[in-house]
Specification:
The chain has one domain (about 55-190). The protein has helices at about 10-30, 65-80, 85-105, 105-115, 125-165, 170-180, 185-190. The radius of gyration is 18 Å and the shape is globular. The chain is mostly helical. Helix 1 runs parallel beside helix 3 (about 85-105) and helix 3 (about 85-105) packs across helix 5 (about 125-165). The chain is about 65% helix and about 0% strand. Bound molecules: zinc ion. Zinc ion binds near residues 39, 41, 53, 56 and 57.
């Protein structure tokens, strides 16, 4: 659809998003990430986080942690940048999430995951998986806007709880184990 005169300004956030995503794909590829799971199967979902297919297909249990990123970003930005338009805040959230994906897939962090956490055979995310993670963040961001603070908090806590029992990992543990690995937690996570 074409915008009438005077409305072009509204498309700039989406131009920025497009450029951000293109730069992210380029950067991930330069860092040596593969496009798709080495197994070649076209499954959209990979449910076993202890398998080599984790973070290689489109969605997996960790996708939900990226929805939580979006919820957290919305909560922070709604307060910090209350006067910024929703589109620009969303663009900023996508930028942050893209930066996280690039950082998470640097050789240093991949090595850290392999040594300190349950990501024993972790080889970094596939590029398609990273893009899907960003999509999940966008979903979380939009969800948080619809739900408001109280229900966003409920959704956050419930999701963390479900992930903890389901795959013995969640956003909180993921960050904790990356920064301050605890052997007892790692041993518990490895038993499945
Ligand atoms: Zn696979």
């Amino acid at each position: 659809m074409m915008y009438r005169d005077g409305h072009q300004g509204k498309s700039w956030p989406w131009v920025a998003v497009g450029a951000l995503l293109a730069a992210t794909v380029y950067q991930l590829h330069s860092q040596g990430r593969i496009w798709w799971c080495a197994c070649g199967k076209l499954n959209l979902w990979a449910g076993d986080i202890w398998s080599a297919h984790n973070s290689q297909h489109v969605f997996d249990p960790y996708s939900f942690t990226h929805v939580l990123h979006g919820i957290v970003f919305y909560g922070i930005m709604a307060r910090l940048f209350a006067r910024m338009s929703f589109a620009w805040r969303l663009c900023l959230a996508i930028g942050l999430e893209a930066a996280w994906e690039v950082f998470e897939n640097t050789p240093f962090i991949i090595q850290r995951y392999r040594e300190a956490t349950i990501g024993l055979g972790y080889e970094g995310d596939s590029i398609v998986n990273s893009m899907a993670d960003i999509l999940c963040c966008v979903i979380g961001f939009i969800l948080a806007r619809q739900l408001g603070l109280r229900w966003s908090l409920v959704l956050f806590v419930v999701t963390e709880g479900v992930l903890l029992f389901w795959v013995r990992d969640n956003l909180t543990l993921n960050i904790l184990m990356l920064i301050y690995p605890i052997d007892t937690i790692k041993s518990w996570q490895m038993v499945h």
